Amino acid sequence: MSRSPGFPEPAIPGPDIVALRVMSEIDAAEVRQEARRLALRHGFSTVRAHGLATAVSELAMNLVLHTTRGGLIRLTAQDTPDASVIELVAEDDGPGIPDLALAMEDGFSTRGGLGCGLPGTRRLVDSFTITTRVGEGTRIVCLVRRP
Questions:
Q1: Digits of tens for pLDDT over the chain (147 positions)?
Q2: Which residues of 89-127 are buried (b: 16+ CB within 10 A; e: fewer)?
């Protein structure tokens, strides 16, 4: 099919990106709200949007509690004809995690909490990858798909 002059080709939508520096509990609350709004904007169910927001909240609070300078949370939503995917990246240049296997066990906490943050986040997302180096920082990449 050809288009008449003066009629532009339909635009291919690019990714929808939200990126926030997280240094305080207020920042963590803000990025949680942004995550929920992003998911709803891209057709995720309320339950799925709240799951993403919870995962973001857990990772954001880790930035607040375990680093001195906070870190960055970036959410990138991309729609395709078949589905939507949101990539969640949390990264910092903090102390790193000395024993990653232990940190991924339910109930383990270095600060007296419930020890649900990282393992709980892993259960809330479709894909979870963590890279950490002691003294250099941690990077977590998660994917959440709209079913």
A1: 444 556 555 455 678 999 999 999 999 999 999 999 999 999 999 999 999 999 999 999 999 999 999 999 999 999 888 889 999 999 999 999 888 888 878 666 665 555 568 988 999 999 999 999 999 999 999 999 997
A2: bbbbbbbbbeeeeebeeeebeeeeeebebbbebbebbee
3-state secondary structure the chain: CCCCCCCCCCCCCCCEEEEEEECCHHHHHHHHHHHHHHHHHCCCCHHHHHHHHHHHHHHHHHHHHHCCCCEEEEEEEEECCCCEEEEEEEEECCCCCCCHHHHCCCCCCCCCCCCCHHHHHHHHCCEEEEEEECCCEEEEEEEEECC
CA angle 20, 109, 88 (to 5 degrees): 25
Give residue for tokens 């939200």: 18
**Contact present, 21 and 70 (Cβ < 8 Å):** yes
